[in-house]
Automatic annotation (TrEMBL):
Transmembrane segments: none annotated. It is an enzyme of class 1 (oxidoreductase). Pfam families: Aldedh (PF00171). The keyword Oxidoreductase applies. It comes from Pararobbsia alpina. The gene is davD_1. This is Glutarate-semialdehyde dehydrogenase. The active site is at E255. One of its GO terms (molecular function) is succinate-semialdehyde dehydrogenase (NAD+) activity.
Protein backbone atom coordinates (compact mmCIF):
# COMPACT_ATOMS: atom_id res chain seq x y z
CA UNK A 1 0.00 0.00 0.00
CA UNK A 2 1.41 3.39 -0.99
CA UNK A 3 0.53 5.22 2.20
CA UNK A 4 2.21 8.42 3.30
CA UNK A 5 2.11 7.28 6.92
CA UNK A 6 2.54 3.53 7.29
CA UNK A 7 1.83 3.80 11.03
CA UNK A 8 -1.85 4.13 10.12
CA UNK A 9 -1.82 0.51 8.98
CA UNK A 10 -2.18 -1.25 12.32
CA UNK A 11 -2.36 -5.04 12.66
CA UNK A 12 -2.84 -5.14 16.43
CA UNK A 13 -5.74 -4.28 18.72
CA UNK A 14 -5.65 -1.16 20.91
CA UNK A 15 -6.40 -1.67 24.62
CA UNK A 16 -5.57 0.66 27.47
CA UNK A 17 -3.30 2.76 25.31
CA UNK A 18 -1.23 -0.25 24.16
CA UNK A 19 -1.11 -2.11 20.84
CA UNK A 20 -1.53 -5.80 21.59
CA UNK A 21 -2.11 -9.28 20.20
CA UNK A 22 -4.62 -11.94 21.16
CA UNK A 23 -3.71 -14.09 24.16
CA UNK A 24 -3.63 -17.11 21.85
CA UNK A 25 -1.55 -15.25 19.21
CA UNK A 26 -4.20 -16.31 16.69
CA UNK A 27 -5.02 -13.90 13.88
CA UNK A 28 -7.70 -13.32 11.24
CA UNK A 29 -6.89 -12.60 7.61
CA UNK A 30 -8.42 -9.47 6.09
CA UNK A 31 -9.03 -9.77 2.35
CA UNK A 32 -9.33 -7.25 -0.46
CA UNK A 33 -12.81 -7.99 -1.89
CA UNK A 34 -11.70 -7.00 -5.41
CA UNK A 35 -8.98 -9.62 -5.87
CA UNK A 36 -9.19 -11.78 -2.75
CA UNK A 37 -5.61 -11.00 -1.71
CA UNK A 38 -4.72 -10.82 1.97
CA UNK A 39 -4.19 -7.19 3.01
CA UNK A 40 -3.04 -8.07 6.50
CA UNK A 41 -4.09 -9.72 9.75
CA UNK A 42 -5.64 -8.66 13.05
CA UNK A 43 -5.71 -10.40 16.44
CA UNK A 44 -8.40 -13.00 16.98
CA UNK A 45 -9.47 -11.85 20.43
CA UNK A 46 -12.30 -13.18 22.54
CA UNK A 47 -13.97 -12.84 25.91
CA UNK A 48 -10.86 -12.49 28.10
CA UNK A 49 -9.29 -9.71 26.06
CA UNK A 50 -12.61 -7.88 25.83
CA UNK A 51 -13.02 -8.05 29.60
CA UNK A 52 -9.57 -6.48 30.00
CA UNK A 53 -10.51 -3.69 27.60
CA UNK A 54 -13.66 -3.05 29.63
CA UNK A 55 -11.61 -2.81 32.83
CA UNK A 56 -9.28 -0.31 31.14
CA UNK A 57 -12.27 1.75 30.02
CA UNK A 58 -13.70 1.66 33.55
CA UNK A 59 -10.45 2.89 35.09
CA UNK A 60 -10.15 5.68 32.50
CA UNK A 61 -13.75 6.77 33.01
CA UNK A 62 -13.11 8.58 36.30
CA UNK A 63 -10.72 11.15 34.86
CA UNK A 64 -12.39 11.45 31.45
CA UNK A 65 -15.86 12.25 32.76
CA UNK A 66 -14.35 14.76 35.20
CA UNK A 67 -13.14 16.90 32.30
CA UNK A 68 -15.40 19.70 31.19
CA UNK A 69 -17.29 19.39 27.96
CA UNK A 70 -15.12 22.14 26.53
CA UNK A 71 -11.95 20.19 27.38
CA UNK A 72 -13.26 16.99 25.82
CA UNK A 73 -14.42 18.95 22.77
CA UNK A 74 -10.96 20.44 22.27
CA UNK A 75 -9.41 16.96 22.20
CA UNK A 76 -12.05 15.74 19.74
CA UNK A 77 -11.27 18.72 17.54
CA UNK A 78 -7.61 17.65 17.43
CA UNK A 79 -8.76 14.17 16.45
CA UNK A 80 -10.85 15.72 13.66
CA UNK A 81 -7.88 17.69 12.35
CA UNK A 82 -5.62 14.63 12.30
CA UNK A 83 -8.23 12.55 10.46
CA UNK A 84 -8.61 15.34 7.91
CA UNK A 85 -4.84 15.62 7.44
CA UNK A 86 -4.57 11.86 6.82
CA UNK A 87 -7.77 11.44 4.80
CA UNK A 88 -5.99 10.28 1.63
CA UNK A 89 -4.32 7.38 3.45
CA UNK A 90 -7.52 6.53 5.30
CA UNK A 91 -9.51 6.50 2.04
CA UNK A 92 -6.96 4.17 0.45
CA UNK A 93 -7.25 1.83 3.41
CA UNK A 94 -11.05 1.94 3.13
CA UNK A 95 -11.03 1.00 -0.54
CA UNK A 96 -8.60 -1.85 -0.03
CA UNK A 97 -10.53 -3.53 2.78
CA UNK A 98 -14.10 -2.63 1.81
CA UNK A 99 -13.95 -2.38 -2.00
CA UNK A 100 -15.82 0.88 -2.58
CA UNK A 101 -14.48 3.26 -5.25
CA UNK A 102 -11.82 5.65 -3.97
CA UNK A 103 -14.05 8.68 -4.60
CA UNK A 104 -16.73 7.11 -2.39
CA UNK A 105 -14.13 6.30 0.26
CA UNK A 106 -13.10 9.95 0.33
CA UNK A 107 -16.76 10.87 0.61
CA UNK A 108 -17.11 8.53 3.59
CA UNK A 109 -14.15 10.22 5.29
CA UNK A 110 -15.82 13.61 4.81
CA UNK A 111 -18.97 12.16 6.34
CA UNK A 112 -16.98 10.63 9.20
CA UNK A 113 -15.26 13.95 9.89
CA UNK A 114 -18.59 15.75 10.14
CA UNK A 115 -19.55 13.73 13.23
CA UNK A 116 -16.28 14.41 15.04
CA UNK A 117 -16.63 18.12 14.37
CA UNK A 118 -20.31 18.18 15.34
CA UNK A 119 -19.88 16.38 18.65
CA UNK A 120 -16.71 18.28 19.52
CA UNK A 121 -19.02 21.31 19.48
CA UNK A 122 -21.93 19.55 21.20
CA UNK A 123 -19.73 18.46 24.12
CA UNK A 124 -20.11 21.87 25.74
CA UNK A 125 -23.85 22.08 25.04
CA UNK A 126 -25.18 19.39 27.36
CA UNK A 127 -27.85 21.28 29.26
CA UNK A 128 -29.78 20.42 32.41
CA UNK A 129 -32.83 22.19 33.84
CA UNK A 130 -33.93 24.08 36.90
CA UNK A 131 -37.41 22.75 37.55
CA UNK A 132 -40.41 24.57 39.04
CA UNK A 133 -40.60 24.21 42.80
CA UNK A 134 -43.51 22.45 44.45
CA UNK A 135 -42.46 23.66 47.91
CA UNK A 136 -40.82 26.90 48.99
CA UNK A 137 -38.12 25.11 51.00
CA UNK A 138 -36.94 23.00 48.05
CA UNK A 139 -35.09 23.54 44.78
CA UNK A 140 -35.45 21.00 41.98
CA UNK A 141 -32.84 20.26 39.31
CA UNK A 142 -32.32 17.86 36.41
CA UNK A 143 -28.70 17.28 35.46
CA UNK A 144 -27.18 15.09 32.75
CA UNK A 145 -24.24 12.78 33.33
CA UNK A 146 -22.37 10.27 31.14
CA UNK A 147 -23.81 6.75 31.06
CA UNK A 148 -20.38 5.23 31.73
CA UNK A 149 -18.46 2.56 29.85
CA UNK A 150 -19.97 1.94 26.40
CA UNK A 151 -19.63 -1.01 24.06
CA UNK A 152 -19.84 -0.33 20.33
CA UNK A 153 -20.16 -2.89 17.54
CA UNK A 154 -20.12 -1.70 13.94
CA UNK A 155 -20.83 -3.09 10.48
CA UNK A 156 -18.44 -3.45 7.55
CA UNK A 157 -20.15 -1.17 5.02
CA UNK A 158 -18.99 2.17 6.48
CA UNK A 159 -15.93 1.22 8.54
CA UNK A 160 -14.84 4.81 9.26
CA UNK A 161 -18.11 6.74 9.47
CA UNK A 162 -19.71 4.24 11.84
CA UNK A 163 -16.75 4.63 14.19
CA UNK A 164 -17.02 8.40 14.42
CA UNK A 165 -20.83 8.39 14.49
CA UNK A 166 -20.75 6.26 17.66
CA UNK A 167 -17.46 7.11 19.35
CA UNK A 168 -17.62 10.90 18.94
CA UNK A 169 -20.87 11.44 20.89
CA UNK A 170 -19.83 8.90 23.52
CA UNK A 171 -16.52 10.66 24.17
CA UNK A 172 -18.14 14.09 24.00
CA UNK A 173 -20.63 13.03 26.69
CA UNK A 174 -17.84 11.84 28.98
CA UNK A 175 -18.15 8.10 28.35
CA UNK A 176 -15.34 5.68 27.56
CA UNK A 177 -15.63 3.14 24.74
CA UNK A 178 -14.72 -0.42 23.81
CA UNK A 179 -15.24 -0.78 20.06
CA UNK A 180 -15.46 -3.96 18.01
CA UNK A 181 -15.09 -3.31 14.27
CA UNK A 182 -16.36 -5.82 11.72
CA UNK A 183 -13.89 -8.63 11.16
CA UNK A 184 -14.07 -7.98 7.40
CA UNK A 185 -13.02 -4.32 7.72
CA UNK A 186 -11.04 -3.66 10.93
CA UNK A 187 -8.19 -1.50 9.64
CA UNK A 188 -10.16 1.75 9.37
CA UNK A 189 -11.07 1.62 13.07
CA UNK A 190 -7.51 0.80 14.11
CA UNK A 191 -6.17 3.71 12.07
CA UNK A 192 -8.67 6.04 13.73
CA UNK A 193 -7.60 4.75 17.15
CA UNK A 194 -3.97 5.55 16.27
CA UNK A 195 -4.97 9.12 15.41
CA UNK A 196 -7.11 9.37 18.55
CA UNK A 197 -4.05 8.60 20.65
CA UNK A 198 -2.05 11.22 18.77
CA UNK A 199 -4.82 13.74 19.43
CA UNK A 200 -4.47 13.25 23.18
CA UNK A 201 -7.39 10.95 23.95
CA UNK A 202 -6.06 9.28 27.12
CA UNK A 203 -5.25 5.56 27.39
CA UNK A 204 -8.32 3.45 28.09
CA UNK A 205 -10.80 6.06 26.90
CA UNK A 206 -11.05 4.57 23.39
CA UNK A 207 -10.24 0.87 22.96
CA UNK A 208 -10.52 -1.33 19.86
CA UNK A 209 -10.77 -5.12 20.10
CA UNK A 210 -10.77 -7.36 17.02
CA UNK A 211 -11.65 -11.00 16.60
CA UNK A 212 -14.45 -13.43 17.39
CA UNK A 213 -17.78 -11.54 17.02
CA UNK A 214 -19.71 -14.00 19.19
CA UNK A 215 -17.33 -13.96 22.15
CA UNK A 216 -16.71 -10.22 22.02
CA UNK A 217 -20.41 -9.47 21.62
CA UNK A 218 -21.33 -11.70 24.56
CA UNK A 219 -18.83 -9.99 26.85
CA UNK A 220 -19.89 -6.49 25.84
CA UNK A 221 -23.54 -7.33 26.44
CA UNK A 222 -23.14 -9.46 29.58
CA UNK A 223 -20.48 -7.51 31.46
CA UNK A 224 -22.26 -5.31 34.04
CA UNK A 225 -19.53 -2.64 33.86
CA UNK A 226 -20.72 -1.80 30.33
CA UNK A 227 -23.75 0.42 30.82
CA UNK A 228 -24.56 1.15 27.18
CA UNK A 229 -24.31 -0.86 23.97
CA UNK A 230 -24.56 0.70 20.53
CA UNK A 231 -24.73 -1.55 17.48
CA UNK A 232 -25.08 -1.20 13.71
CA UNK A 233 -25.80 -4.37 11.76
CA UNK A 234 -28.47 -6.90 10.91
CA UNK A 235 -31.84 -7.07 12.64
CA UNK A 236 -31.15 -10.70 13.59
CA UNK A 237 -27.93 -9.82 15.41
CA UNK A 238 -29.53 -6.76 16.99
CA UNK A 239 -32.33 -8.90 18.37
CA UNK A 240 -29.78 -11.31 19.88
CA UNK A 241 -27.77 -8.49 21.48
CA UNK A 242 -30.96 -6.98 22.88
CA UNK A 243 -31.78 -10.30 24.54
CA UNK A 244 -28.26 -10.62 25.95
CA UNK A 245 -28.36 -7.07 27.35
CA UNK A 246 -31.66 -7.73 29.13
CA UNK A 247 -29.93 -9.49 32.03
CA UNK A 248 -28.38 -6.24 33.27
CA UNK A 249 -30.77 -3.72 31.66
CA UNK A 250 -28.25 -1.84 29.52
CA UNK A 251 -29.12 1.29 27.64
CA UNK A 252 -29.27 0.40 23.93
CA UNK A 253 -28.93 2.05 20.54
CA UNK A 254 -29.63 -0.32 17.64
CA UNK A 255 -29.35 0.76 14.01
CA UNK A 256 -30.60 -2.32 12.18
CA UNK A 257 -31.66 -3.48 8.74
CA UNK A 258 -33.70 -1.43 6.32
CA UNK A 259 -35.97 -2.18 3.39
CA UNK A 260 -36.44 1.31 2.00
CA UNK A 261 -39.30 2.07 -0.40
CA UNK A 262 -38.56 4.53 -3.21
CA UNK A 263 -41.76 5.91 -4.77
CA UNK A 264 -41.94 7.81 -8.06
CA UNK A 265 -45.29 9.52 -8.70
CA UNK A 266 -46.66 10.48 -12.10
CA UNK A 267 -45.96 14.19 -11.48
CA UNK A 268 -42.34 13.67 -10.43
CA UNK A 269 -39.36 15.19 -12.18
CA UNK A 270 -38.15 11.90 -13.68
CA UNK A 271 -34.59 13.09 -14.27
CA UNK A 272 -34.32 14.16 -10.63
CA UNK A 273 -35.84 10.85 -9.54
CA UNK A 274 -33.31 8.93 -11.63
CA UNK A 275 -30.44 10.87 -10.06
CA UNK A 276 -31.88 10.30 -6.61
CA UNK A 277 -32.25 6.58 -7.22
CA UNK A 278 -28.72 6.24 -8.61
CA UNK A 279 -27.27 8.06 -5.60
CA UNK A 280 -29.28 6.02 -3.13
CA UNK A 281 -29.19 2.59 -4.74
CA UNK A 282 -25.70 2.19 -6.18
CA UNK A 283 -23.58 3.94 -3.56
CA UNK A 284 -21.33 1.31 -1.99
CA UNK A 285 -22.64 -1.22 -4.56
CA UNK A 286 -26.06 -1.09 -2.91
CA UNK A 287 -24.63 -2.19 0.44
CA UNK A 288 -26.18 0.49 2.64
CA UNK A 289 -29.02 0.18 5.12
CA UNK A 290 -30.80 3.28 3.81
CA UNK A 291 -30.46 2.56 0.09
CA UNK A 292 -33.55 2.23 -2.09
CA UNK A 293 -34.69 -1.38 -1.87
CA UNK A 294 -38.28 -1.53 -3.16
CA UNK A 295 -38.87 0.82 -6.10
CA UNK A 296 -42.48 1.74 -6.87
CA UNK A 297 -43.13 3.70 -10.07
CA UNK A 298 -46.50 4.99 -11.25
CA UNK A 299 -47.85 3.04 -14.22
CA UNK A 300 -48.17 6.22 -16.32
CA UNK A 301 -44.41 6.87 -16.25
CA UNK A 302 -42.84 3.46 -15.63
CA UNK A 303 -41.73 2.85 -19.23
CA UNK A 304 -40.05 6.23 -19.58
CA UNK A 305 -38.47 5.88 -16.15
CA UNK A 306 -37.12 2.40 -16.93
CA UNK A 307 -35.67 3.51 -20.29
CA UNK A 308 -33.85 6.43 -18.68
CA UNK A 309 -32.56 4.23 -15.87
CA UNK A 310 -31.26 1.53 -18.23
CA UNK A 311 -29.29 4.16 -20.15
CA UNK A 312 -27.64 5.40 -16.97
CA UNK A 313 -26.93 1.92 -15.62
CA UNK A 314 -25.12 0.97 -18.81
CA UNK A 315 -22.74 3.89 -18.26
CA UNK A 316 -21.49 2.44 -14.97
CA UNK A 317 -18.03 0.91 -14.87
CA UNK A 318 -17.50 -2.05 -12.58
CA UNK A 319 -14.08 -2.95 -11.23
CA UNK A 320 -11.25 -2.13 -8.84
CA UNK A 321 -12.13 0.76 -6.58
CA UNK A 322 -8.61 2.15 -6.98
CA UNK A 323 -9.34 2.79 -10.68
CA UNK A 324 -10.61 6.38 -10.91
CA UNK A 325 -12.95 5.45 -13.78
CA UNK A 326 -14.76 2.81 -11.71
CA UNK A 327 -18.15 3.78 -10.27
CA UNK A 328 -19.17 0.38 -8.85
CA UNK A 329 -16.93 -1.84 -6.75
CA UNK A 330 -17.24 -5.47 -5.63
CA UNK A 331 -19.63 -6.91 -3.09
CA UNK A 332 -18.06 -7.59 0.28
CA UNK A 333 -17.86 -11.41 0.17
CA UNK A 334 -19.23 -14.58 -1.42
CA UNK A 335 -22.21 -14.73 0.92
CA UNK A 336 -23.28 -11.33 -0.37
CA UNK A 337 -22.95 -12.53 -3.97
CA UNK A 338 -24.94 -15.67 -3.20
CA UNK A 339 -27.77 -13.65 -1.66
CA UNK A 340 -28.02 -11.16 -4.53
CA UNK A 341 -27.85 -13.96 -7.09
CA UNK A 342 -30.61 -15.88 -5.28
CA UNK A 343 -32.93 -12.87 -5.21
CA UNK A 344 -32.39 -12.07 -8.90
CA UNK A 345 -32.85 -15.68 -10.03
CA UNK A 346 -36.02 -16.06 -7.96
CA UNK A 347 -37.47 -12.90 -9.51
CA UNK A 348 -36.50 -14.00 -13.00
CA UNK A 349 -38.06 -17.44 -12.47
CA UNK A 350 -41.32 -15.82 -11.34
CA UNK A 351 -41.63 -13.57 -14.39
CA UNK A 352 -39.53 -10.44 -13.80
CA UNK A 353 -37.88 -8.91 -16.87
CA UNK A 354 -34.12 -8.33 -16.71
CA UNK A 355 -33.57 -5.00 -18.47
CA UNK A 356 -29.91 -4.64 -17.49
CA UNK A 357 -27.27 -6.71 -15.70
CA UNK A 358 -28.46 -9.70 -13.75
CA UNK A 359 -25.20 -11.59 -13.28
CA UNK A 360 -21.60 -11.47 -12.11
CA UNK A 361 -19.25 -9.59 -14.42
CA UNK A 362 -17.03 -12.67 -14.35
CA UNK A 363 -17.50 -15.95 -12.52
CA UNK A 364 -15.28 -16.33 -9.48
CA UNK A 365 -15.30 -12.60 -8.69
CA UNK A 366 -17.40 -10.44 -6.34
CA UNK A 367 -18.22 -7.98 -9.13
CA UNK A 368 -22.00 -8.08 -9.63
CA UNK A 369 -23.40 -6.02 -12.48
CA UNK A 370 -25.71 -3.08 -11.90
CA UNK A 371 -29.10 -4.69 -12.47
CA UNK A 372 -32.61 -3.52 -13.35
CA UNK A 373 -35.63 -5.81 -13.02
CA UNK A 374 -39.13 -4.86 -14.13
CA UNK A 375 -42.38 -6.49 -13.08
CA UNK A 376 -41.62 -7.25 -9.44
CA UNK A 377 -44.58 -8.82 -7.63
CA UNK A 378 -45.27 -9.51 -3.97
CA UNK A 379 -44.60 -13.25 -4.27
CA UNK A 380 -40.96 -12.65 -5.20
CA UNK A 381 -38.30 -12.81 -2.49
CA UNK A 382 -36.81 -9.53 -3.65
CA UNK A 383 -40.06 -7.78 -2.72
CA UNK A 384 -39.67 -8.81 0.92
CA UNK A 385 -35.95 -9.03 1.66
CA UNK A 386 -33.27 -6.38 1.98
CA UNK A 387 -31.15 -6.81 -1.16
CA UNK A 388 -27.82 -5.26 -0.08
CA UNK A 389 -26.57 -5.25 -3.65
CA UNK A 390 -26.66 -3.21 -6.89
CA UNK A 391 -30.11 -4.39 -7.97
CA UNK A 392 -33.19 -2.27 -8.71
CA UNK A 393 -36.53 -4.06 -8.85
CA UNK A 394 -39.49 -1.99 -10.09
CA UNK A 395 -43.10 -2.54 -9.07
CA UNK A 396 -45.83 -0.43 -10.68
CA UNK A 397 -48.74 1.24 -8.88
CA UNK A 398 -51.77 3.35 -9.84
CA UNK A 399 -52.85 5.30 -6.75
CA UNK A 400 -51.23 7.09 -3.84
CA UNK A 401 -53.05 4.85 -1.38
CA UNK A 402 -51.73 1.74 -3.11
CA UNK A 403 -48.16 3.05 -3.04
CA UNK A 404 -48.37 3.99 0.63
CA UNK A 405 -49.81 0.62 1.60
CA UNK A 406 -47.04 -1.27 -0.23
CA UNK A 407 -44.36 1.00 1.23
CA UNK A 408 -45.54 0.43 4.80
CA UNK A 409 -45.99 -3.32 4.33
CA UNK A 410 -42.67 -4.17 5.95
CA UNK A 411 -41.42 -4.89 9.48
CA UNK A 412 -38.53 -2.52 8.73
CA UNK A 413 -38.84 1.22 9.25
CA UNK A 414 -35.50 2.91 8.64
CA UNK A 415 -35.66 5.12 5.51
CA UNK A 416 -38.18 5.90 2.78
CA UNK A 417 -38.06 8.12 -0.31
CA UNK A 418 -40.57 9.59 -2.72
CA UNK A 419 -40.58 12.01 -5.63
CA UNK A 420 -43.56 14.25 -6.33
CA UNK A 421 -44.30 17.86 -7.28
CA UNK A 422 -47.51 17.88 -5.22
CA UNK A 423 -46.99 19.73 -1.93
CA UNK A 424 -50.17 18.43 -0.30
CA UNK A 425 -49.23 14.87 -1.22
CA UNK A 426 -45.77 15.46 0.24
CA UNK A 427 -47.29 16.36 3.60
CA UNK A 428 -49.58 13.33 3.52
CA UNK A 429 -46.76 10.93 2.64
CA UNK A 430 -44.30 12.49 5.07
CA UNK A 431 -46.73 11.82 7.89
CA UNK A 432 -48.08 8.53 6.56
CA UNK A 433 -44.82 6.69 5.88
CA UNK A 434 -43.88 4.49 8.84
CA UNK A 435 -40.16 5.23 8.76
CA UNK A 436 -37.67 7.09 10.92
CA UNK A 437 -36.16 8.92 7.92
CA UNK A 438 -38.03 10.30 4.90
CA UNK A 439 -36.37 11.79 1.82
CA UNK A 440 -38.63 13.96 -0.37
CA UNK A 441 -37.30 14.60 -3.88
CA UNK A 442 -33.84 13.44 -2.83
CA UNK A 443 -32.04 10.13 -2.53
CA UNK A 444 -29.35 11.36 -0.14
CA UNK A 445 -30.51 12.02 3.42
CA UNK A 446 -27.55 11.32 5.71
CA UNK A 447 -25.63 14.10 7.43
CA UNK A 448 -24.42 14.98 10.90
CA UNK A 449 -27.32 17.38 11.61
CA UNK A 450 -30.27 15.04 11.03
CA UNK A 451 -31.19 12.31 13.55
CA UNK A 452 -30.35 8.95 11.96
CA UNK A 453 -32.37 5.91 13.04
CA UNK A 454 -35.44 3.83 12.45
CA UNK A 455 -38.64 2.52 13.96
CA UNK A 456 -40.26 -0.94 14.09
CA UNK A 457 -37.63 -3.66 13.53
CA UNK A 458 -35.07 -1.17 12.23
CA UNK A 459 -33.94 -0.35 15.73
CA UNK A 460 -34.07 2.07 18.63
CA UNK A 461 -32.28 5.34 19.30
CA UNK A 462 -30.83 8.03 17.07
CA UNK A 463 -27.32 8.86 15.88
CA UNK A 464 -25.96 12.23 14.83
CA UNK A 465 -27.77 15.53 15.43
CA UNK A 466 -28.42 17.19 18.77
CA UNK A 467 -30.26 14.02 19.80
CA UNK A 468 -27.24 11.76 19.28
CA UNK A 469 -25.37 12.81 22.39
CA UNK A 470 -28.48 12.21 24.52
CA UNK A 471 -28.08 8.47 23.86
CA UNK A 472 -24.91 8.54 25.99
CA UNK A 473 -26.32 10.57 28.89
CA UNK A 474 -28.43 9.78 31.93
CA UNK A 475 -30.79 12.28 33.55
CA UNK A 476 -30.40 12.70 37.27
CA UNK A 477 -33.11 14.45 39.26
CA UNK A 478 -31.90 16.40 42.31
CA UNK A 479 -34.17 17.63 45.09
CA UNK A 480 -32.40 20.11 47.41
CA UNK A 481 -34.21 20.82 50.65
CA UNK A 482 -33.44 23.18 53.55
CA UNK A 483 -35.29 25.48 55.91
CA UNK A 484 -33.21 28.49 54.89
CA UNK A 485 -34.30 28.21 51.27
CA UNK A 486 -37.73 29.69 51.96
CA UNK A 487 -36.22 32.65 53.82
CA UNK A 488 -33.92 33.68 50.98
CA UNK A 489 -33.84 37.48 50.45
CA UNK A 490 -33.99 36.82 46.70
Amino acid sequence: MEMRDRLLFRQQAYVGGEWCDADSRETLDVLNPFDGNVIGTVPKMGQAETARAIRCADVALVAWKAKTGKERGAILRKWHDLIEANSDDLALLLTLEQGKPLAEAKGELTYALSFVEWFAEEAKRVYGDVLPNTRSDQRLLAIKQPVGVCGAIIAWNFPSALVTRKVSPALAAGCTVVLKPAELTPFAALALAHLAAQAGIPPGVFNVVTGDPVQIGKELSANPVVRKLTFTGSTETGRLLMQQCASNIKKLSLELGGNAPFIVFEDADLDAAIEGLLASKFRNAGQTCVCANRVYVHAAVVDEFADKLVARIRQMKLGNGLDSAVSLGPLIDRRAVAKVSRLVEDARAKGAQVLAGGKLQKEGTLLYEATLLLGITSDMQIAREEIFGPVVGITTFSTEQEALAMANDSPSGLAAYFFSADLERSWRLMEGLEYGIVGINTGMVSNEVGPFGGIKESGVGREGSKYGIEEFLEIKYVCLSGKSLNTSPY
